[in-house]
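Below: protein 1.
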Amino acid sequence: MNQTPSAKIGSVLIVGAGIAGMQSALDLANAGFKVYLTEQSENIGGVMAQLDKTFPTNDCSTCMISPRLIEVAGHPNIETLTRSRVTGIQGEPGHFQVDLLREPRFVKEAVCTGCGECVTVCPIEIPADFNLGLNRRKAIYRHFPQAVPAAFAIDRRGTSPCKAACPAHISVQGYVALIAQGKFEEALALIRQENPLPFICGYVCTHPCEEGCLRGEGDEPLAIRDLKRFVADYERLSGPINTPKKKGNKTEKVAVIGSGPAGLTCAHYLALEGYAVEIFEALPVAGGMLAVGIPAYRLPREVVQREIQAIENLGVTIHLNAPIGPAHPLESLREEGFKAVFIGVGAHQGMRLNIEGEELAGIVSGVDFLRRTALGNPQPLGDRVAVIGGGNVAIDSVRTALRLGSKEGLILYRRTREEMPAYAEEIEEALEEGVIIHFLTAPVRFLGDGSGKVKAVECLRMKLGEPDGSGRRKPIPIPGSEFRIEVDGVVTAISQLPVINSLNLPPTVQVSRMGTLTVNRLTLQSDLPWIFAGGDAVSGPATVIEAVAAGKKAAVSIDRYSKGEDLEFGREKVFDLARPEISGVPPIRRFKPQRTDPGLRRTHFEEVVGVMTEEEAREEATRCLACGICSECYQCLEVCKPGAIDHTMKAEEISLEVGAVILSPGFEIFDARLKGEYGYGRYPNVLTGLEFERVLSASGPFLGHIQRPSDGREPRKIAWIQCVGSRDASIHQDYCSSVCCMAASKQAVIAKEHSALIESTIFYIDLRAQGKGFDRYVEQAQIRHGVRYVRSSISRVAENPKTHNLILSYIDEANQFQDEEFDLVVLSVGMVPHAESKALVRTLKVETDRFGFCQNLSLNSIGTSRPGIFVGGVFQNPKDIPETVTQASGAAGETAALLSEVRGTRIKELVFPEERSVAGEEPRIGVLICHQSRTNVADDSGISVEPGYSRLLFPPDP
């Protein structure tokens, strides 16, 4: 690369890679300048790539633009930066520093071969923007086969709210999308990537994901937990557990104390990393609170055992009846060769009420009551049982009491139902079973029968005051409201504590005043580096999914600790939440699970809630709004042989030194919904001119067959309405868009060429056919193709609701009011500046006119208000393709003149081998392998290709 002491820079930034940007880029690159061609879209080509034919020659637009695309892509001195926008500029003509932000493509351009396998497995479909929403495309896509760059791209709007709300951050949208496609095994495998207890969570998860579901703002959230349970149950019915593959076997051992959800999860992920994991459980059964704290009617024991078996299949050893404490000190685990210890003990100790009479017989804590029942040693409490509390343990306790034979179950709760922390569905099921809830009721003492057994609870009525620390309104006693409730037994279920003291912790490990372990919030590491803790042991009584999240977090930390890596680096999760527009989403009824008969279910411990059918699951999954667009199902990763897909890509900040800038950001079409009288957006058979171009195109949504969007029927009568959003002062668009008249004539002619049966009518105010041969084109449209031109003023377009035909009401040249019916209406909408232009001109400090087009302060049509920045194409004012190309070359010429003294200073010098005579040499045959197919050329041809050698011959693009 040659250098020069000049202050000017021999490179140019071109903003916008439509036909104008490409023309300027090629002119400058061929003239000896380095060109940075930026484009906010995924591909270059602009609107011209969307056209069917070009006016006035009616040549194939793709055929015309493709050579330009290829030339730009292959030019050594043009660097194309897609998904990029300008964020800042400083400097002066000849030497600018421009800042860009390049959004991630999530596909490596240099690696992607364009095979399209990713598209076949992507479960997400959205309206195809290149086809103006007339059909649908996948979340991973390429706009058209000839697109440049040829690599695919992934659309992501951000993180779906359901994933962000889930403590374990499962790709909820991903597995829901897979369920909708009937890919149940893949859905379950995706869940297991972040949660090794999907079956358990399908029964008892508190489903915070549903609280985040935006569908709930329109009707009801998706039944996400039921969908999770369905795919887990599908695996149970279809065969053995699909155990994930381990990464290998390590020599390090890790001890886990407690086999609840936190301990099981930590063990699962460490085992996958290859560690030898041993779990020490004090109880005679594994599962912790899953096995002894949640009744079997809510969480069947075989479900818990199945999940535990899957973890044991990874090589995890579980020691039952093996408490860590005085007999087996925690510190001795270190001596036994364990590299690290994770403490995941549950909250198995019930909190006391500390009121008079609490020591009476017949009063038991909820966790003790449930544990004894689960272990086969139930404790019936009599005919009338009162449970004190409003959480899940309280609801579980009263429903368990009924199943153990109690005739009447009461709940005493000091707030109202709105403040109850128990699951809403649990409360509903309890009420169905006959449980009576006394709200705004607080016990003040227990009364005995004289023999040491409880016989009554003395209570006070309460009222709610201001919110307390929990965010719920604080209950306040009402003086003089005392009353008694006769009972045979009482269960206290106000809260629980983890059993920490029995562990005999080293003094270095801190315990909070709430009796929980103090650890680093991000890493779960204690002050003693080899001890980690999570779940109830740290948070106090929480949910299963929160314990799963803690176990997974601890596993990452222990793995890093074992490797000597930084435990905190990159761990903080910040989500950019997706927020789609949901105002027009039609309501769809949410799935409601079947429950067994309340009278029967209170007599046994069989499960209460039924599972979805396959049909119900797929139907419910289709309610998903695909908030994030890409669902992060990762199916594309499975099929991408070159490994081109990278879901971790981040936005890239780029700083460039350039001598000049050319602005060619192109245009957008006028939003025809602003002219409501034409029915666009309400009537499916009213299209814009650009939409009709895609209808005509062989690569379009209907493969070139002209049909109506409403019913797919081929139209016979098509009307074009001119000057929609152009020459209209009522909407501040009182400029002519220049190209609409001839574009409509071209479309009418092409439509007749598609089908001679089509009758084409153009309604116009006046025809502006100001180019060479344009008048002749209109004459030929009338004479040769039978296109009818009607000078008129359209008042409205109305739809026949039965046929979806369209009635045009207009005043003709004779000032007569007419109604005429058509099958299809095409609106010749005007050009407006591209949306990106507003931010662009603010950043570059370039002035625009009142319409948003670039302001020219002199007769120089390619200059702007800022020296060193030029303009080309429609951003200067509306114009057709030939004029656009001409102006783009003019902008390139002005730029070259400004930078003439530094021409050739930034370009790549191509080095070619010296020519020599090969006369008399033995002939040699070379095979050129296409970049797009080099991964499978050997398979297709049957030729044996040596991979190492072929990579030397055909290295990846830089």
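Below: protein 2.
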Amino acid sequence: MAGIGDASAGCDDPDHDGYGLGCPLGEVDCNSNDPAVHPGAMEVCGDGIDNDCDGHVDEDEDCCDPAVTDCNRGPDPAQTIGSFVFGLSKSFLGLDPLCGTQRGASLDTRRDLIVGGIDRIVSEQAALSLGDVARTALRPLLESGDLETTLLALTDVVALLVDDAFDPQRTNLTAMAGVLRTDTVLESEQLFTLARGVLAGDQAPRALHALAQIAQELDGAEPAISALMRVLSTALKAQSHVAQCTGLDLQPLVERLLDPTGMPARPELGAAAPVASAAHPGTTFDAKRTGLGFAFELAGPALQAGLHRDALAFADAALGAQVSCGTQCWSYPGADSPLADVLHLGLELLRHDELKALLGGVARLVHERPDVAEKLAIATGKLVTRVRQASLRLDTAQLARLARRLLPLVQHIFAQGSDTPRLLIRTINGLGQTARDFPGRLRWTLDYSNLVKARSCSDSEPDFARSTPVNYSQPRGVANRSSLEQVLELLSSSDCGSVPLTGGKTVAQFFLDLVADRTPATVCSVVDVLLGAWSATGVVGDFFVELALRTAGCRDPHAVLDNLGSLDQLAGSGALDFLIPLDKIISGQGQTRTIIAIAGVIAEDLRLDNDSDPATQSVFRPLLPVLSDLIASGAVDALFDLSEVMTQVQTADAHGQTATLADVLIDATAFMLVDRELTTRQGAARRSSFAAALLDPMIVLVDRVSGVATSGAGGRILDHLVGYLQADGQGHLAHRGVLPLTQVLLDGLVAVWRLEPSSRDCYVAALQADAGDVLTSPAFATLVRLGRILDRSPQRAAVEQALVAWLQPVPVDPAASVFSPLLQVTAALLQMHPPVGAMDQLVAFAGVALDPARVNGVAVLRTFDTLLEADRDQVFLGMFRRAVAPSPAGPVPLSGLVDGYGPALSISPSACTPQNAPWTARGLDTALGSLVRMLRDPRYGIPAVFDALEALLAGP
């Protein structure tokens, strides 16, 4: 079929009367096989033929005999609106020069369906008010040109589908036909119910008006709606790197997302949302009791909490200041993008089996032991909540220095594998209540510089009234150091010399290795006796200790003497019952030197507070009162709960061997800490650990978002997410859908790991490329700026209130429910299996259609907004509501109109007969081509209609 406006076909005039497609006298010829029939011909009365092609048969007053034929002099004032519209539309379709008669005949067979549907939509009261509303609304729209611009723009979009230059092979129509022919469990009534819910009440018009106002605010030099359309157009037209990869089947994940298994009945959500199952024909499932249902439940509260605004503010701060990329173009810097660097390295982890083992273990836990997984989630939530309750501000530069110094030491612990951490975890869990008592005893050493206790080695608590508390708000000084600080400084200062006959061990190393083989009670007694004797001998004791230290090779024995009393505080706290068994593990694994070195780094940091220089302040010391508060809050108990749960769960490690979840967590940590060849976003391979490579961009991120975090954006996001891990009164997750939804997400990640290495690498590389491109693109920068416009707009509340109301699972007015039908429609669409590539093709076409150079978004929104503003009595809105309302007299009116007009529009021009399969590319080409030709016709289409309206409104 020739495309619209294709002049290369010449004049198509079989009857040689000068009329036809591309002909000089005109393109309309309602019968190209009869030269006596054409526009301007004499109407022959009584022959039953529209001789002059004006859409009316035998209407001439001089020869028409009403007794013989219908003169079609115009609508009878007594006839209904439906009859009038039917006659008008039949005349309009009759203008088709090829198949007008056949289209009219097709409409005649469905006259009652069409007339009845229109009469139900346009009530008698609406008909009386329609003219006034139309005049009130149309005058400003005609004067501004918005209405004509809107209709012509929409026509142009439809015309693209049948444009030979744009799409000569009709690939878009083929894709559309393929989607329309796809078997689906989607029911039309679900769509109508959804429309009824959206149109109920006054939320929709208020939200539309607010959107129209926001859309006209400027982003630079262009309206916000144009900027948004440009962003969407760019995103839809772009070919994603991921689309080039193969092997990943998402259908099993969709089935899991729609599987209600394991989801409890929840009467508080109201009536079920049944959806037919494509996998099991003849059965249905309640979409509310699925992972998808829970995801929908999250949307409303997230919007209400303003997380979308906080997320944009957070991203804006993390990406840095926007830079110019040309005229009216801004983007985020590509070279300096720590967020993109972190995402790149995070995705790089998908290439390695150690992380697969960890997430695979968590996924297995959620699948097989949901009760244990629930305890793990609650314990995690409790721990994070306790940490959040502690107010802490750290200088990122100092934190970076401390982290960089500690990282190699922590790496050393894992350098020979993960045996040491595994043994430590097992030992801690084996200590039972002793381990759980330790945090409380450690807190004493944090809160007091001197613990007074009648008998140091007894189980009794210290006499806190006589003990000396630490004042962390005051300068540190010698007298204002916690017992723990003194112990750390003792280890650091005694890491000196070489004790004879020990193979070169320092004093600190010798002492730790020595006490590792003793019982806590023995060590406490020895410390108590030795320190008692040293204290009793005064200067003499100091002399002998100093002599011994100098003999061993320690150059600053006074530093040891200043902190030697801390051993008594440590022994008196009872912490040795916990620390000695751990010391035995550390000593046995040859890690004593590493622990002493870590203590030395921390002690050096603590000593930065020994002077009054504000430029040299400790990072670690502000953590000490926070740690004390966390212990008091019970957060550390939650950490023990986590440890116990993870050591009970059996899974497989990276080599397929049986291991506990705690083991694979330790293995993953070891993997993150061990140096290897890494490829960063910049592409250069360098030898480093993942932890070290992530440290620098993470610190930059923390530094950049600190202002946002201070204003509460980051904290609100975190608190909202942690809220999903809170327990109810029965000890279960208050949000019961967390685990099923988490299971789907974990299954998706595990599915990537199960791919062949080449396919997995393709997806990883594609995601890395897409993440970097998106974050540093002008489109994303525009999106953030639009977020700022929305955030400051006084109209924002109306839009957000409408969305929140529509996403309520149980609305106040059941007739206004949007949640259930929206969930049903989404669940049905997810079960569709359209032809391969069809949806990608249509998405790309949508990108072209949304180009602001083609569609004036401001005019479109302003048109509908003006119509609704003029519609004070909701005449138009009432018509829309009745169009989707159920009716005992027949189908939903809108459905009836589709069934009534559809066959007429799908008539083939080749034989002027209805297509056997209307949803084919050829059938769509025919219908859309005819429609566009008629809408563009200067005598009968949109231009003529507007000419008439302007003349009507202009008056005499």
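The two ends are 45 Å apart (CA to CA).
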